[in-house]
Each structure stands twice: as structure tokens, then as C-alpha cells.
Amino acid sequence: MKIVPVLDNIRSSYNVGAILRTAEGLGVTQVICSGYTPFPNEGSGRLPHVVEKERSAIHKTALGAETMLKLEYAKSLSKRLTELKEQGYKLAGLENNLADERIVALNNPQLKERLGERVALVLGEEVCGISQSILEMLDVLIEIPMLGQKESFNVSVAAGIALYQLQLL
Questions:
Q1: What is the DSSP letter of 79?
Q2: What domain range is 96 assigned to?
Q3: What is the pTM of this model?
Q4: pLDDT at 44
Q5: What single DSSP character describes residue 9?
Q6: pLDDT value, residue 98
Q7: What does DSSP assign to residue 99?
Q8: Do 134 and 78 touch, CB atoms closer than 8 A?
Q9: Helices H, strands E: what count in the chain?
């Protein structure tokens, strides 16, 4: 399965770095960033000194993975997701606690059938999740079943769990 993680409005540079390191370690080759997600390369429209500050912070947890991946900054996420859909990608969001008929547990045996061979996996903001406008575009919502009392994982941990499990499908 080809997976393209999409990081939308992730606030923490450390979460971004951890996701990049995990993604690279699991064979992902491309990551798309959007919104105010810290971005370590030129192209986000940010001033050079801001890009350098974000690059330095991301490197602390990415440990070089940020240079091994094809990183893209999407100025219009809805437009970029539409392009991915036209290229045959299923648009999936990693979310939880939603009352939505599109939601499928990560350990559901029918998940692979729902996703196919190409997936854009949208990861949203740490507290509020994926924005409503982007949620409406998604084909599938993936939920990690929680076994403890907490309702969610840190976004970088959730990304690691989901990317690993999806690679096994």
C-alpha cells in the first residue's frame, strides 16, 4: 500500500519531526504539510528565518528523516486532496469519537478493501482534529480502538500506530 501522510495544522515541530522519522522508518517516501504545520523547507511562504527555526526544531526529533522524504507544502489542502483523489488515492482521516458512517476501526479486517492500494492519510490538529471542511472531503475515517481510559493518543503516536498497521494490510 502506498501511503502519503498529510499533516494539516499540526502545531508542534516536535510532533512533525516524530511523524517524519516514523514515516521514513516505515517506508513512506512522501509527506504533505499544510496550514500552520511547521515545514522545514522553503515553499511554505514563511520568512527564511522562520523556516530555519522550524527546520532546527523538526530536526531534533526527525534526526535527518526530514532530508530523506519528499516534503511538499500544500497552500490549498482541498485542492491538493482533490488532485490526489483524481490520481486514484482514497482520502482517509485519522480521527476518533465521531458519529459518522464512514468511520472504520484500524483493526477492522475490511479496512484494506475500503482503502485500496493508495491512501492519503490526513492527520489533523492535536486538540481539535481535522477541520470540518476537510472532513467532508474524506472517503474513510480511521479510528484507533482505545483500550484504556484516555480518549486519544498524541498525534505522532497515533500516526505511528496507523502507519504501521496500514503497512501490514
A1: H
A2: 2-168
A3: 0.96
A4: 87
A5: S
A6: 84
A7: -
A8: yes
A9: 7, 7
